Amino acid sequence: MATLIFWLVVLVTVASAIAVVTARNILHAAFSLCLTFLGVAATYIFLHADFVAAVQLIVYVGGILVLIMFAIMFSSNVVEDTAEGRRGLLALGAGAAGMAAVFAAVLLLTSRLAEPLKTANPCANVAYAATVSVEAGQTGIGHCLMGPYLLPFEVVSVLLLAALIGAVVIVRKEVR
Amino acid sequence: MDLTGLLRAGPDALANYLILAGVLFACGIFAMVSRRNAVGILMGVELILNAAGVNFVAFARFGHNKIDGNQLDGQVFTLFIIVLAAAEAAVALALVLSVFQTHKTIALDDVDEMQM
């Protein structure tokens, strides 16, 4: 049963991702992107990463997607970006995507995924068992963020502030 | 593992997640190259970031890092990726709106001078 649902999720994700890329109407592409984000969130749940799935839902579907919709509707003639005069670009895109896929496949086939990693692990002291409970995972992430990853956490918060101020400054009309 | 084995394993095989992430990544590259609309290119970037996030969480779950039995670093990295994607989207869409105000278009073929 879980396997069936998993493949359903993968099918929806891949199909909507392809629709994002090929849709002629950019607004349709944005709606497909919503399905893709939902599928990726479901994939996170299959990976026992409940908190990441929730964050994905809130930030991507609730935030970024709404921003994208706003940008589409504020700017432009929505029905643009059609196929005529785009054949060369499409071929180029197919070539680039194919090369990326081949590169990823070669990396996968030649890498030795089964070998244990020998690197140091910053979250080593955080007590956590992935499959025990949801709360354990959330507590572990909290301890990770407030412990070994405290500096990146703070830097990211400053970066968010800077990005928001920058966005406001960029779109602001000049006042003389 | 062969194909039927992967099909039967479903959510319990690392390779399935890697293949999914690879497809998402390829779609993102395709969008970045073939779209002319700036927002379309941004969507491609979001797809690529999602693929990276799936890879991080998949390796956090299945990676054989049993030295200390911890599997959370990948999830924390994915959280950072999501936050950075949000910041990037905000700035990029602000740029798109700004370009639209000055050029009346966001087709990147037509926006090729730096001066306004």
Explain what the structure shows.
- The complex is a heterodimer of chains A (176) and B (116).
- Chain A is mainly α and 176 residues long.
- Chain A folds into 2 domains: 1-77, NADH-ubiquinone/plastoquinone oxidoreductase chain 6, subunit NuoJ (Four Helix Bundle (Hemerythrin (Met), subunit A), Up-down Bundle); 123-176, no CATH class.
- Helices cover 72% and strands 0% of the residues of chain A.
- Chain A has helices at 2-22, 26-46, 50-74, 87-110, 134-146, 150-171.
- Chain A is globular.
- The model of chain A is unreliable at 127-132 (pLDDT under 50).
- With 116 residues, chain B is mainly alpha-helical.
- Chain B has a single domain (13-103), classed as Helix Hairpins (Orthogonal Bundle).
- Helix content of chain B is 72%, strand content 0%.
- Chain B has helices at 3-9, 14-34, 38-62, 73-103.
- The longest helix of chain B has 31 residues, at 73-103.
- Chain B is elongated and about 55 Å long.
- In chain B, 53% of the residues are buried.
- At the A-B interface, α1, α2, α3, α4 and α5 of A face α1, α2, α3 and α4 of B.
